[in-house]
Each structure stands twice: as C-alpha cells, then as structure tokens.
Write a structure and sequence with these properties.
ATP-binding; four-stranded antiparallel β-sheet; alpha/beta; 22% strand; 267 residues; 37% helix; 2 domains
Length: 267
C-alpha cells in the first residue's frame, strides 16, 4: 500500500472549513459545536467511537440533513443548507457507509448517470442539437469506460450492479463519484466489509488521485492501521464534539482520544 505524503506547503486557505456545526435530534445533539478544517490536497481521517456523530456530520456537510447551527465553507462558499445536488456541482461529493449502487441497472449505466452536463436530459436540446447530444453521450461513456478499466471493473461493465461483491461495489461507488469530476471526496467507512486485497486497491486509488489530480479526501474510518498509515491529519469526535485533531501519532496518543475509545467500549 502507498504511504501518505505530507500535503504541499501552501498559503491558500483550507478547502473545507466546518465551524461550530450543530445537529439536533429532539433533545440529543448528534453534532455538538463541531469545528475543524481540511487542507487542500490532503487525506484527512475522521475517527471516533460508534455514535460519535461522524456520519451525521457528513450528512450535514453534504446537504443530506439540515444543520441546526454553524457554518460550512467549501472553497470559499458557504454551503450549509444547500441541497446535495448543488453541493456536488461545486465539486464536493461523497460515498456512503452502505453503498448506493443501483442494483437493477448495469455497471456502465451506474457510471454514466453520475456525469454532469448531460444535454440529453432536456427534450429541447435533443430536438435542436441532436449531434451535440450524441457527442456528449459518447464522451461520457468513454470516460466511464476508462474509470472502470482503472478500477479493475471493465469486465463487469454490462453486469447488473447488484451482482458485484461488497468490495467491488465500494470500488464502483468511488469510480462513480469521479464521474462528477470532484475536487473533494468524503468517504464513509470505505474499508467496511471489504476484503484486504480490494481494500488495498481502493487505498491505492485514493493516493493516486491525490498525487495525480490533487483530489482532497476526508474519510471516516475505524481501522486504525489504515488511519495511521494513510492519512496526513486526523480529527477525532466523541459525543458529537471534536475532541482532538492533528498528526496521526499525536492524536492516537492523546489522552482524550484514548479515554473516548476505552470509555465508550469501542477501542
């Protein structure tokens, strides 16, 4: 597996800033005044015991749930409260803990549906500019084929997505979000339910995308070997709040982090 490299020195502001975000469910604060930043071109891990609020925070950041307070700034734009499709168009996309492959559709169709700027979606464009529509469709299908080849899924191109293994679905989901040409990807437990071989390939793709395209990653992960070996920076949450952040080794040895895991019974 590839080793992480420190993000390039830069004076530019963080790509993502989460500031004092709150999300309530009744009287429970699932996210409690959470604040942290993600540097451009970095791989940042978000860790914490089960129930710490990590996935809820992802949902708020990406617009799948409405926050009750705070600010989320992506690339200089305030995005808290915007719908998921609008956030994705800004270049911020995510995967899910339970993959969202369209099981009854072929793998290639799962890929092409995620591409932006599809003129064929509009009847007027189909009638007025049929050649341009066909040309764009060919471009999208070619891009999808390239990504499937890169992720080792080309042989599954015409198979129904529901026939893929759990690890292959994780790879498909990452390949699919790349169809949206993102600048930042949020990965929700990418290693969960994935065998070590496919997990290693997924991590290799993450590093390759960071090195080649400068893609920024924020991932929720429980596997501490993955966190320590593949992230530049770690943010730890417990009971909805950020309790520590910094270099992986420093966070792992932080007494507050140790207490959160051992005290929560999720070490």
């Amino acid at each position: 597996m590839s080793e992480p490299g420190p993000p390039s020195a830069t004076l530019s502001p963080p790509l993502l800033r989460v500031e004092h975000v709150v999300k309530r469910f009744g009287g429970v604060r699932a996210v409690d005044d959470a604040s942290f930043a993600v540097e451009r071109g970095s791989i940042t891990a978000l860790i914490g015991p089960n129930g710490a609020g990590k996935t809820t925070l992802f949902n708020v950041v990406t617009g799948f749930q409405h926050g009750d307070g705070g600010t989320v700034v992506y690339d200089g734009r305030a995005i808290l409260g915007r719908p998921p499709w609008a956030i994705a168009r800004c270049g911020l996309v995510r995967t899910f803990q339970i993959t969202k492959a369209l099981a009854a559709m072929p793998v290639i169709d799962n890929m092409t549906l995620a591409a932006p700027h599809q003129p064929g979606e509009h009847i007027a464009t189909l009638l007025v500019r049929p050649r341009a529509t066909r040309r764009r469709e060919h471009e999208i299908e070619a891009r999808a084929g390239e990504l499937l080849e890169t992720f080792g899924l080309a042989a599954k191109r015409d198979d129904y997505a529901g026939t893929l293994s759990g690890g292959q679905r994780k790879l498909l989901e990452l390949a699919r979000v790349l169809m949206a040409e993102p600048r930042m990807v949020l990965l929700d437990e990418p290693m969960a339910g994935v065998n070590p071989t496919l997990g290693g390939k997924l991590l290799e793709h993450v590093h390759a995308l960071r090195e080649r395209d400068g893609t920024t990653f924020l991932l929720i992960e429980h596997d501490m070997e993955v966190v320590m070996g593949h992230s530049d920076r770690v943010v730890c949450m417990a009971q909805g709040a950020v309790i520590a952040e910094g270099a992986p080794e420093a966070v792992r040895n932080d007494p507050r982090v140790i207490d959160a895991y051992l005290g929560g019974g999720s070490a």
